[in-house]
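From: lab user (bench 3)
To: helpdesk
Subject: output format question, protein + magnesium ion

Hello, I'm new to running complex predictions and I'm not sure whether the block I got back is the full result or only part of it. Here's what I submitted:
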Amino acid sequence: MTTVLERVRSGREAAGERWRGAPRWVRWALLAAVIAFFYALPNREFYQYLGPIPTPGANFTQVLFTVSIYVLLAVGLNIVVGFAGLLDLGYFGFFAVGAYTVAVLTSPSSNVKTLWPWLLVVPLAIGLTMLSGVMLGTPTLRLRGDYLAIVTLGFAEMIRIAAVSSEFLKGQRGFNQIPHPPGKYADGKPFFGVLDARPYYWLVLTLIILVVIGVRNLTHSRVGRAWISIREDEDAAQLMGVPTFKFKLWAFASGAAIAGLAGALFAGKQNFVNSQNFELLNSIIILAAVIFGGSGNIVGAIVGGGLVAYMIERFRGIELFGVELYEYRFLIFGLVLVVMMIFRPEGLIPNRRRAAEFKDRRKEVIVGE
Amino acid sequence: MLLEIDDVSLLYGRIQALHGISLTVAEGEIVALIGANGAGKSTTMRAISGIRPIASGRIRFEGEDISKLRADLRVRRGLCQAPEGRGIFPGMSVLENLDMGAYTRRDRAGIAQDLSRVLDLFPRLAERSKQAGGTLSGGEQQMLAVGRALMSRPKLLLLDEPSMGLAPMLIQQIFDIIKEINEQGTTILLVEQNAQQALARAHRAYVLETGRIVKSGTGAELLHDPAVKEAYLGVA
Ligand SMILES: Nc1ncnc2c1ncn2[C@@H]1O[C@H](COP(=O)(O)OP(=O)(O)OP(=O)(O)O)[C@@H](O)[C@H]1O
Ligand SMILES: [Mg+2]
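Helpdesk reply: Thanks, we reran it on our side. This is the complete output you should expect:
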């Protein structure tokens, strides 16, 4: 049994070595091809040739937009969970703060009636989510242990309940006529319209690329080293002179800011925001997606977030023995996760260090037996 | 005095682990702290490095009160601890671990110089520079922890059981290295189970029992003290 496990676990190392061993230009060319593929993906002229990839039960470009939002969220949560090793169970709460900031400040159904344009509110939404991250993190990140998990869980639930029941946040009725992002085609028609989801997807895709470049640069700097050291051994990190609280707060707040950006994009696309968009389950799914993909690895988080969001939609309209698979999406997802945790606890595309940390812990478990 | 600890107490929840201990370390010394399991040796180290807050008393470093200073700021002042056991970063390579030791420093030239010095002291680490810290043997991890602490170029190096889990020959070697580090100008506070070796090399030493200092003297004095002999040196 153990040998089988070991063989499965070491399978990915070969692929990883081949990628790292490839010449620079090959890697760049592959990367460019992948990016071009994803820009082309929402065009019917392209995806109709992709066989089973388009979703049968839902508009494929709409699905792609949803998937892209999940990918952005996964990249953000990966900073918090993957790099700094902080357990955030309420990440979707920050998404909600971003979306509601946009809704309240732009929608005509809002009480404040500011009716500001979308673009002006986006930085505010990001700033406000970051601020809520700092407010939440300042008292909790000083403490060790599971306080953060509990507090973030409570935070997301608080936001949801406020959304459902407060008159200011409009509950189920929600906010409508939230303005779209600006931009026009040459013929005067708006670029970001109601029917075509492609421009929104392209916008999110572009932002994902920018965010990933930013995050990559961070992780290769002193900041990244500090995060990794905190994740691996917080006491030791402090003994090396890393101001651990400051860096945990940074990770937590920048993760929150990315969720706020995602929320603002979501609101700008949907045109309508109400309390049903922010169920607690979403936080759990994002977290599971990051772990599934390989937390601590940017590519892993992207693949995890994308795959999970896509698979859930892909189940729509598929019938098996008379039941729609979509009904059982979470059961299937749960099973896949359990299998993953047995065979590859470090995720699909793990971080090399993470893999070593897991081995280290497995060794401790064996010693402890 | 480089380090002065005055009447320090420390609590773990309601358990009192240190009952008003006082000790001093002068510049250039090796001071050993010996005691049985659970006596509070590691706890004393944690109090000095600031990983655990103290309940009362005062810790002074170079004459300044650092009792309330954050741990990472104490490192910047020149106080660095190699923690007990496996305090290394398991996912980082040996070189990355050593690099983390120099986290507070920005003088590239000095860092490079200290790196080659550490690799000279521990040739084993040089051989395994790319290996993940978590996959090193226990003894190698111990060396890495000491080497990493040296990379901060501390004025005071706190070593918590550097000989733990080492083979007899390596124990000899690590104590020789400690002596060498000291002769190169680093002051050392050394916690050890291995009382014989520690006392033989220490200028002065303290004996800790259930959170209290019960005896102190020069290394040689304690080495020949009948009570210490019986309790810690395994001779009747
Ligand atoms: N985190 C903790 N919470 C509660 N009690 C603790 C904690 N750490 C240590 N103690 C207790 O404090 C006392 C002193 O522990 P300490 O680790 O300082 O001993 P030590 O002298 O280093 O022992 P050893 O030689 O075994 O390393 C022990 O009774 C221990 O059980
Ligand atoms: Mg100890």
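A quick orientation on your result: Residues B 12, 15, 17, 35, 37-43, 84, 193 surround adenosine-5'-triphosphate (ligand 1) (CB under 6 Å). Let us know if anything else is unclear.
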